[in-house]
Design brief:
Layout: H1 7-16, E1 31-33, H2 40-47, E2 53-56, E3 74-79, H3 82-92, E4 98-101, E5 115-121, H4 128-134, E6 135-146, H5 152-159, H6 170-179, E7 182-196, H7 199-208, H8 222-235, E8 238-251
Helix pairs in contact: 1-7
Protein name: Methyltransferase domain-containing protein
GO biological process, one term: methylation
Domain Methyltransferase type: 55-142
Length: 252
């Protein structure tokens, strides 16, 4: 086996690579994440063709939705970050998908009852009243959310011990959804193993998932990165865990 590249080489490469969009292909062979047991993409691919009109909230660059083979007659997506919205237009526009950029806290720019299915994979902050409003009576919200304390080991390595809720508890979200007029049909939770096999993978993911270490930069955390690099070389990987929950909610 070839020796691992130097700390400097790994960090410089990861600090320079484009991290826009939600394609994590750059991490192939450098990091792994166990998938939740329910198979969100498979379930989404079954549901979307049965809908009449569907909306994907916080689509990112459209990478997940692009893997669905068949869409309903009307398929719309929203995305708040301009570079991702442009990527989604390029990826999904040729398939007839309407891509709408939505500034933060601006609501969903659609009339009441516009969709019989609203979906999302890892929404930033679900706006439950808006989701309920744009759903037609009997319509469903089907989504995979990031759960509480996701990648906590990674966050605490750089920021120290965290305490208190982070606002992503599935039962809290379920109560908020019900208060907005949605009924829980199904709720599943999972804790999934993550491994990072070189320090470049860690730099990349912290640049991409900026909420894990909000003030992250290579210069600011060089000493911690060097310590983690030594740990990875000694142990073979750095291990963390993601948490996920799956919602199936119905509007009365």
């Amino acid at each position: 086996m070839a020796p691992m590249r130097t700390f400097e080489d790994l960090v410089a490469e990861a600090a320079a690579v484009d991290v826009s969009g939600w394609d994590f292909g750059w991490l192939d062979g450098r990091a792994t994440e166990e998938h939740p047991p329910w198979g969100y993409l498979r379930l989404l691919s079954q549901r979307l063709p049965r809908a009449t009109a569907a909306l994907d909230v916080d689509t990112g660059g459209g990478e997940v939705l692009s893997e669905v083979p068949s869409f309903p007659a009307r398929m719309c997506v929203t995305e708040g970050w301009a570079p991702n919205a442009e990527r989604a237009k390029a990826l999904l526009g040729p398939r007839g998908v309407e891509v709408v950029r939505t500034p933060p806290d601006s609501g969903l720019p659609f009339p009441d009852g516009s969709f019989d299915l609203v979906v999302s994979r890892h929404p930033v902050r679900p706006d439950w009243p808006e989701i309920a409003r744009v759903l037609a009576p009997g319509g469903h919200y089907f989504a995979q959310h990031v759960g509480p304390g996701s990648a906590l080991e990674l966050t605490e390595y750089f920021l120290g011990e965290r305490s208190g809720p982070d606002g992503r508890d599935p039962h809290t979200e379920a109560a908020q959804a019900e208060a907005a007029g949605l009924r829980v049909e199904d709720l599943r939770v999972a804790r999934c193993r993550m491994e990072f096999f070189d320090i470049g993978a860690v730099v990349y993911i912290l640049r991409k998932c900026v909420w894990w270490v909000p003030d992250f930069s290579v210069d600011r955390y060089t000493d911690a990165l060097r310590r983690m690099d030594a740990q990875i070389r000694a142990d073979g990987s750095f291990v963390a865990h993601s948490t996920r929950h799956l919602f199936d909610l119905r509007r009365a």
